[in-house]
Design brief:
The complex is a heterodimer.
Chain A (H helix, E strand, L loop, with lengths): L2 E5 L2 E5 L4 E8 L5 E7 L5 E7 L5 E3 L5 E5 L4 E6 L8 E11 L2 E6 L3 E6 L1
Parallel strand pairs in A: 2-11
Antiparallel strand pairs in A: 1-3, 3-8, 4-5, 4-9, 6-7, 7-8, 9-10, 9-11
Chain B lengths: L3 E4 L2 E4 L4 E8 L5 E7 L6 E7 L2 E5 L6 E7 L2 E7 L7 E8 L6 E2 L3 E5 L1
Parallel strand pairs in B: 2-11
Antiparallel strand pairs in B: 1-3, 3-8, 4-5, 4-9, 5-6, 7-8, 9-10, 9-11
The chains are: A mainly beta, B mainly beta.
Chain lengths: 115, 111
């Protein structure tokens, strides 16, 4: 069965500092992996996705993530945080079995940015 | 505009009421999902439909009843809810195992 673990429910960084949000996954088949962002009272917006092509994936708003199979990780990074990055971030894994797809989300990490 | 539209955006209902949440997508996706998001709790997958057939029911109480009449529409019928069912209900769609596209959600308050 698939699962996603996000380490740290809350991460706080200074504006201009490196952002690192951690995600580990478990999947019995090659996974598709995603990072989403959620602003208050909004739905989730896709930041980036890994679908078995390049292991380093670039997304919107300067975010990127690296798929490491040996570590079963898909950590999200951004070199320099902006105040507008403050939001909730979710890692997700999907797999398809017998034509039925399912997407499972991690518990989320709230990112705060200090001025 | 994400391509997935949920109505209503806000709903207040009593414990004896019956109401329905609606989700519509015109992205040509074959999978649709209901998620529940409560304060300080993980995003919970409730139901999954693939090609209009229910393929996942994540032990959801029977007071929540999903309906998928076609691949573009998904409903969540609500009856005799409890205050702890108050949450943000999110609908999403995807094409096979691809990324999910989310609606803006329905903020449900049970009084």
């Amino acid at each position: 069965a698939q699962s996603v673990t996000q380490l740290g429910s809350h991460v706080s960084v200074s504006e201009g500092a490196l952002v690192l949000l951690r995600c580990n996954y478990s999947s019995s088949v090659p996974p598709y992996l995603f990072w989403y962002v959620q602003y208050p009272n909004q739905g989730l917006q896709l930041l980036l996705k890994y679908t078995s092509a390049a292991t380093l994936v670039k997304g919107i708003n300067g975010f990127e993530a690296e798929f490491k199979k040996s570590e079963t990780s898909f950590h999200l990074t951004k070199p320099s945080a902006h105040m507008s990055d403050a939001a909730e971030y979710f890692c997700a894994v999907s797999e398809i079995r017998s034509s039925a797809s399912k997407i499972i989300f991690g518990s989320g990490t709230r990112l705060s940015i200090r001025p | 505009e994400t391509g997935v539209t949920q109505t209503p955006r806000h709903l207040v209902m009593g414990m004896t009421n019956k109401k329905s949440l609606k989700c519509e997508q015109h992205l040509g996706h074959n999978a649709m999902y209901w998620y529940k998001q409560s304060a300080k709790k993980p995003l919970e997958l409730m139901f999954v439909y693939n090609f209009k057939e229910q393929t996942e029911n994540n032990s959801v109480p029977s007071r929540f009843s999903p309906e998928c009449p076609n691949s573009s529409h998904l409903f969540l019928h609500l009856h005799t809810l409890q205050p702890e069912d108050s949450a943000l209900y999110l609908c999403a769609s995807s094409q096979a195992a691809g990324e999910a596209f989310f609606g803006q959600g329905t903020r449900l308050t049970v009084v």
